[in-house]
Amino acid sequence: MQNSLESLVNVLESYRGRDKVIRTMCYGSQLIGGILSEKLGLSSAVLGKRLLLFSAQLSHCRTVLRLFDDLSMLAYSQSYGLGAGEEDCPLRWMSVLNNAADQLYYPCEHIAWAADAQIISAKSDKWWLLSGILWGLSLIFGILRSMRVILLLRKKLKKLRQDDSSGSRSQLRRQVRGEVLSILSSMADLSNAVHWMPPGFLWAGQFPDWLVGLMGTISSVIGLIQMGASQATSA
């Protein structure tokens, strides 16, 4: 019990860890709230609406916190640059495009938020749309990048089969599982990104609240699992 509490505290004390917990609670509340709000019972419907309101507040909280993410993203983009240290050319350019989409996403979202908050005089709709498109592009590039990484890792695994290096094989397999989880997470987020596009685009606007919450919860839980795995590896 004590170890679990300490682990949770350690997660909440880091910005990224806290964001992942808030994200999980946000989508989890939307999932449960969406299910309850569709029930016939009055008490269930009221509780469902309250959970949806709670989810909306957590989402707004994350939007405000992302006002401070530009510099960290810029530092990462600069450190990666054009991926000169990357041996595989397709992997390099997918990573560069992914970083560019992420970098442009933040100012677009900031402008949309500031317009909604009436801090600036602008229409927020086009900026929310642009930020949604950039998020979707980032997810697509991320999925393609993970698929490429899996392909390269499998080639390495085939070469290692001739050598009896079990430790190296197990490490490569862990990396493959990590990339598969990343693909599943990004695909769940991408389904929501399409849902938030203008009506008429694929399944835009057709997801009920509980389905948006389900997709987001799947992605968030995978993120928590990956964070826990990386902490265990570094420890």
Automatic annotation (TrEMBL):
Transmembrane segments: 127-151
Cellular localisation: Peroxisome membrane
UniProtKB keywords: Membrane, Peroxisome, Transmembrane, Transmembrane helix
UniProt keyword Disulfide bond present: no
Annotated signal sequence range: none
GO CC aspect terms: peroxisomal membrane
Listed name of the protein: Peroxisomal membrane protein 11C
Taxonomic source organism: Umbra pygmaea
Biological classification of the source: Eukaryota, Metazoa, Chordata, Craniata, Vertebrata
